[in-house]
Write a structure and sequence with these properties.
Helix content is about 35%, strand content about 30%. The chain is α+β, with helices and mostly antiparallel strands.
Length: about 180
């Protein structure tokens, strides 16, 4: 686990990811990474292409971190899957980077429905589903999954980077940019 007190400096760097809109007919979609300091200054952007319903989301985020993630102290994602059912393995991401991950969603994931859909459409459904083992907890109107950090620290961090509404600013910006692509 990282030194969690160091996450509360104003220049702490956050790398937040969200996916672009897509249709089920698309083979690929983009993910957008926004590198933002905790004082909400945007330092950099990066995009990567992932397969819709593929298995490369974790690898592509690792690539983005290797390319532009020097000094990043927190990774944030919006959703437990990107590009449909391209499941992000947060445990592997943390294991490979040592950077805590905060995953934020605006509604509680329906794990039974996700499991049923994975079973219906993917031969490798067990492998995909096994990556979804960490639970979400309610934090006000949102649901959070904190990997590599204490939930109380994650909650305090989220409060400090949420300007208006419920979604932390780095994720809100990543969502806006991804939506424009």
């Amino acid at each position: 686990m990282v030194d969690q007190n160091s996450l509360f400096n104003k220049d702490t760097r956050i790398m937040a990811f969200d996916d672009s809109p897509f249709s089920r007919r698309d083979k690929h979609t983009s993910i957008v990474g926004v590198i933002m300091r905790k004082d909400l200054y945007i330092e950099s952007l990066i995009t990567k292409r992932i397969e819709v319903d593929g298995t490369d989301a974790t690898e592509k985020i690792l690539d983005a971190i290797r390319e532009k993630g020097s000094g990043v102290r927190v990774i944030m994602t919006q959703g437990i899957t990107l590009g449909g059912f391209n499941v992000l393995d947060v445990k592997e991401l943390f294991r490979e980077t040592g950077i805590p991950i905060i995953n934020v969603v605006d509604h509680e994931p329906n794990m039974k429905a996700i499991k049923d859909a994975l079973k219906k459409y993917f031969e490798d459904w067990e492998s995909r589903y096994s990556k979804l083992t960490e639970d979400f907890y309610r934090f006000g109107p949102i649901f959070v999954q904190a990997t590599g950090m204490d939930s109380k620290v994650a909650d305090k961090f989220i409060k400090q980077i949420t300007v208006k509404g419920n979604i932390p600013e780095p994720l809100r910006i990543a969502d806006m940019i991804a939506g424009a692509l």
